[in-house]
Design a protein that fits this description.
Elements: H1 7-19, H2 23-34, H3 40-56, H4 62-67, H5 73-80, H6 85-97, H7 106-116, H8 121-133, H9 140-149, H10 153-166
């Protein structure tokens, strides 16, 4: 049985959710302690307040937005164009693996196209994963062309994974195919 949180601790946690300077601290405490016990109106208000605070930071606190499942492509775009390689890598990772809102359209395709052309192999890998996970079939020819000249083993591995997701199934892998399944026999 999980021990109950006392009133003093609950008051301190509420204060931290409402006033801590770090959005990721607010989001973490909110997810751990308040999500199940608050009413839906309080949850929505507090989540919206934390999201607004996270987005008001420069740069935006992507970790807090991810914790609250409010991360969008608009949040990632400034980071994907940052001068810092580490910030671009973090944003590309979040785009590939953590983006929770469905994003369709030319903006996502253009963003991923830039990742595929980046000189950093980790950014190219995240671009390929985004193609596969977001089912960006329009970029498959670019992934195929890229793999022909790719030197990095990880990028080649992710590229093969991506292309295999869209390959038609091999009839030899069909357990229902065989001499017993031929028509007319």
């Amino acid at each position: 049985m999980v021990p109950a949180v006392g009133l003093d601790a609950r008051t301190a946690l509420d204060r931290a959710v409402d006033s801590d300077e770090e959005p990721v601290v607010r989001a973490g405490i909110w997810n751990l302690c308040h999500d199940r016990e608050s009413g839906p109106r309080r949850r929505a208000e507090a989540t919206d307040e934390i999201v607004a605070h996270a987005r008001s930071r420069v740069p935006a606190d992507l970790r807090a937005l991810r914790l609250l499942n409010r991360l969008t492509l608009d949040d990632l775009l400034p980071e994907l164009t940052a001068d810092s390689l580490e910030r671009r890598r973090m944003a590309a990772h979040l785009l590939a693996w953590e983006l929770t809102t469905p994003t369709l359209g030319d903006l996502l395709i253009d963003t991923v196209r830039h990742l595929l052309a980046d000189p950093d192999p980790l950014l190219r890998s995240h671009g390929i994963v985004t193609v596969g996970r977001s089912q960006l079939t329009a970029l498959l020819p670019e992934v195929e062309a890229m793999l022909a000249d790719e030197a990095d083993a990880w990028v080649r591995s992710w590229g093969q994974w991506c292309l295999s997701r869209f390959a038609p199934p091999d009839p030899a892998d069909d357990p229902w195919a065989g001499p017993w399944a031929t028509p007319g026999s």
